[in-house]
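$ ./design --mode recover --in tokens.txt
reading tokens...
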């Protein structure tokens, strides 16, 4: 049975945050990292197009993403826990480049990733940062909701 689009995208985000984390720690090209992740266990039923777009988007636009994030953080982007940094970069990229994904979905997915991969209270930090960031990057959606 094929995964639903929602589940396939959720799996893409999960893999993308791991790929971004790996890139943050070790560098490398997005193409090499994407290829490596295609062969990993647990990467079945992934929306690969979405995965590729997210990984390429974060790696290729990290400076702009970090700039958008920096005004909403209580420390420098580089000082963030690497897991939180990967999740926040991923969600920021979604805010910036995937208007088809509602801001609430972006935040909820990021919070779930933080609960899965982050420290005990990181989901609260991620939620607060992204809630504030949504006001800057998706004001039209906030007004409409």
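writing sequence...
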């Amino acid at each position: 049975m094929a995964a639903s689009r929602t589940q396939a995208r959720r799996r893409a985000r999960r893999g993308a945050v791991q790929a971004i984390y790996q890139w943050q720690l070790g560098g490398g090209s997005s193409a090499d990292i994407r290829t490596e992740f295609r062969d990993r266990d647990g990467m079945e039923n992934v929306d690969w197009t979405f995965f590729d777009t997210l990984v390429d988007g974060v790696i290729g636009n990290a400076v702009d993403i970090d700039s958008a994030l920096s005004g909403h953080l209580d420390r420098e982007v580089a000082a963030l826990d690497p897991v939180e940094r990967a999740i926040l970069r991923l969600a920021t990229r979604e805010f910036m480049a995937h208007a088809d994904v509602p801001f609430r979905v972006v935040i909820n997915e990021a919070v779930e990733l933080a609960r899965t991969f982050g420290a005990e209270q990181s989901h609260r930090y991620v939620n607060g940062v992204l809630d504030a960031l949504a006001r800057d990057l998706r004001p039209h959606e906030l007004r409409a909701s």
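exit 0
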